[in-house]
Amino acid sequence: MAIYIGYLAAALGTICWIPQAWKAWATRDTSGLSLPSNLMFLTTVSLWLLYGILITDWPLILANICATTAMLIIVAAKLRFK
């Protein structure tokens, strides 16, 4: 049961960033986004990804691959569309 809770948490935690990444690229408007905050969160999810890899926790790995990708898109949009 714990593995399913992990996968559900991973899916929900990742899905919440997809609309933000989509909107940033579609509208090219990132004025409401904080670069320092998003860089800090990118660092956080990258460290969680590394931790997941080190302990071989697949829900953690998959969630943070997706979260890191979404955050990279958001940060890239912020840098590109200032």
Characterise the protein shown here.
- With 82 residues, this protein is mostly helical.
- 83% of the residues lie in helices and 0% in strands.
- It contains 4 helices and no strands.
- The mean pLDDT is 91.
Keywords:
82 residues; 83% helix
Mean pLDDT: 91
Order of helices and strands: HHHH
Distance between the termini: 45 Å
- The percent of residues in helical segments reads over 70%
What Rg do the Cα atoms give? 14 Å
Q: In what range is the share of β-strand residues?
A: under 5%
Count of strand segments: 0
Tell me, briefly, the overall form.
Answer: elongated
Q: Please state the structural category.
A: mainly alpha
Number of helices: 4
Main sheet attributes: strand count, strand direction, barrel closure? none
**Uncertain residue segments:** none
Quick structural gist:
The protein is mainly alpha-helical and 82 residues long. 83% of the residues lie in helices and 0% in strands. It has four helices and no strands.
